[in-house]
């Protein structure tokens, strides 16, 4: 195509992509899109509302308008586009907290050491932050809140797809392992009024989970349990679901988690993993980039279908099928053997 940029210009766009991600993350943390929810406004009005410098706010919003996040008219008034609407709080399709979390210090600083990761084959999070990522979040609750909410963004985005592609009606109780504030569990329970649930995560995460379940109108059919999935998970469910849990950990660590699920899961129970799956032909997608994120930040990785099959087989499960969704995620269905 004649309008295709030449390779040097394409590469410059790729190299400077982090400028864009930081601009988006800054707008998310400041709440710029929320200030435009009622209609177009001048940037100096937005600056006053969010407590930022007027000229700097204008330059930030102008740049984001140039790539379609906002609109900018001849009078210098900025408005929302469908893309910018995803940076609002509490609306369907919001990724505001995801944008804030992924561009915050706890993620940004380790990514600055990616060359060391590739040279050593080991995450540099501890060297960058002075502690491992989960300890960093426990010591920095503001960032932890963004991260937990970001997982909620992802859960909300994929929840409709999970309930669309999988039949939950044959189950009696589902346990959401590592379920944070229960956004995914809540969606499942709302879609299936006879189903009951267990929300399981670390105690500091579940501390506010009951309030979230109450807000979703499912608290009467769900119990919240705090603990460590490396040692034990709650018994009593015939279905376990783990969304973006397995990709955080090495194969050895994953087997410990899956074996804990195996011990707790009802006989002949089912297991669902909601994960990005690397295509066997390495076709384009988000999974390969997320794999690098896991390499930088943690001990985990994204996996192919064959790698998930091996992992599940070694943990007492049999992979039954991998279900595609209208999202970057697939639903990996397995049975307890």
Describe the protein's architecture and organization.
With 337 residues, the chain is α/β, with parallel strands linked by helices. The protein has two domains: 81 residues, Orthogonal Bundle (Arc Repressor Mutant, subunit A), CATH 1.10.10.10; 197 residues, Rossmann fold. The strands form two sheets. A seven-stranded mixed beta sheet has the order 6-5-4-7-8-10-9, with helices on both faces. β2 and β3 form a beta hairpin. α4 crosses α5, α11 crosses α12 and α12 packs parallel to α13. The protein is globular and about 65 Å long. It starts with 6 loop residues before the first helix and ends with a strand. The model has no long low-confidence stretch (mean pLDDT 95).
Mind telling me the C-alpha Rg?
Answer: 21 Å
Largest sheet features: 7 strands, mixed
Query: Which oligomeric state applies?
Result: single chain
Q: How would you state the average pLDDT, rounded? A: 95
The percent of residues in helical segments reads 40-55%
Question: Secondary structure elements and their pairing?
Answer:
Elements (H helix, E strand, L loop, with lengths): L6 H9 L1 H14 L1 H4 L5 E2 H8 L3 H13 L3 E3 L4 E4 L1 H4 L10 H7 L2 H7 L2 H7 L4 H5 L3 H7 L1 H25 L7 E5 L5 H9 L4 E6 L1 H4 L2 H7 L6 E5 L12 E5 L7 H14 L5 E6 L11 H11 L7 H9 L3 E8 L5 E7 L1
Parallel strand pairs: 4-5, 4-7, 5-6, 7-8
Antiparallel strand pairs: 1-3, 2-3, 8-10, 9-10
Helix pairs in contact: 2-5, 2-7, 4-5, 7-12, 11-12, 12-13
């Amino acid at each position: 195509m004649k309008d295709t940029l030449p390779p040097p210009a394409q590469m410059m766009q790729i190299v400077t992509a982090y400028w864009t991600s930081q601009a988006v993350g800054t707008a998310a943390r400041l709440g710029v899109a929320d200030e435009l929810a009622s209609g177009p406004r001048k940037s100096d009005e937005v600056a006053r509302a969010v407590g930022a410098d007027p000229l700097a706010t204008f330059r930030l919003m102008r740049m984001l308008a140039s790539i379609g996040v906002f609109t900018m008219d001849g009078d210098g008034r900025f408005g929302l586009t469908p893309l910018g609407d995803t940076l609002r709080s509490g609306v369907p399709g919001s990724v505001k907290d995801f944008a804030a979390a992924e561009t915050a210090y706890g993620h940004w600083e380790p990514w600055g050491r990616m060359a060391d990761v590739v040279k050593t084959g080991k995450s540099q999070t501890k060297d960058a932050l002075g502690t491992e990522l989960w300890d960093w979040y426990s010591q920095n609750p503001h960032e932890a809140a963004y991260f937990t909410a970001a997982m909620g963004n992802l859960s909300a985005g994929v929840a409709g797809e999970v309930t669309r592609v999988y039949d939950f009606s044959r189950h009696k109780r589902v346990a959401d392992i590592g379920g944070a504030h229960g956004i995914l569990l809540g969606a499942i329970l709302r879609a299936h009024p006879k189903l009951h649930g267990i929300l399981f995560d670390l105690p500091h995460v579940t501390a506010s989970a009951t309030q979230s379940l109450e807000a979703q109108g499912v608290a009467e059919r769900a119990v919240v349990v705090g603990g460590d999935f490396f040692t034990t998970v709650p018994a009593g469910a015939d279905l376990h679901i783990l969304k973006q849990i397995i990709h955080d950990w090495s194969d050895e660590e994953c087997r410990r988690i899956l074996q804990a699920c195996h011990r707790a899961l009802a006989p002949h129970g089912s297991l669902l993993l909601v994960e990005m799956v690397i295509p066997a032909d390495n076709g384009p997608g988000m999974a390969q980039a997320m794999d690098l994120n896991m390499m930088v930040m943690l001990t985990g990785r994204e996996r192919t279908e064959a790698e998930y099959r091996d992992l599940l087989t070694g943990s007492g499960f049999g992979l039954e099928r991998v279900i595609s969704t209208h999202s970057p995620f697939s639903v990996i269905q397995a049975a307890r053997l």
